[in-house]
Predict the 3D structure of the following.
Amino acid sequence: MEFNRPRLSVLLLLSPLSQVKNLRSIVSRDAITTMAHLFTHLQHNMDSEVEGAAHTLLHKAGETSLFIRQGVELALSTMVHHCSPGRVLRGLLDGGLRHRNRLSRATTALSLVRLLQVVGVSRVLTGRKNLASEFIPAVSTLAFDADQNVRAHARAALRYLGSHKDAERAVEKYVQLRDQSQVKKLLHN
C-alpha cells in the first residue's frame, strides 16, 4: 500500500496536536517532541499544518512549566528551520502576536528572530515573496511590548534588520508613520 506523503503528514500530526493540549504534562511534552520530530523529518510536507501547529504550540508556551516551554521552543525552532518561511511567519503571527500571555508573545518574538536568522535579512527585505510586509510591522509592534523579554527579542530582530541597506526604506513603507522614528532608532542601536 502506497501512501500519499502530504496526506500522511496530516494523519500523523492530528494525534500529537490533540495531545499537546493534554493536562498531563509528560503526555503533552512527548506530543510536543513528536511534533518536533515530524517537522524535522517531513519538512515541507508539513507546510499545510504549520499554522494550526504554531497556534497550538504558542498557546502551550504560556504555561509556567519550564520543560514544557523548552519543548515548545524546540518544536517551533524545528518548524522554523524545516518549513516554508511564509507559512511559518503567518502561523507565528496568527498564533502569538496578539496573545494575552507574555510568555507566548516572548516565544513568538524569539521564533521571529530565529526565522530572520534562517531566512536572512536580504531575503526578508528583497525576496520574491515579500515577507517584509508582514514581518516588519509585527517586529515593530513587539519591540514596544509591555514585557521586557518580548521587547528584547524584537529589538534584536530590528538590529539584525538594520544591517541591510534597505532596512530604513522598508520601515518607511511598512511601519505606521507615528512609530517610524522610534523604529529607525532601534535599527541603528
Notes: The radius of gyration is 17 Å. Residues 25-42 form the longest helix (18 residues). The chain has a mean pLDDT of 90. Residues 74 and 146 are 25 Å apart (CA to CA).
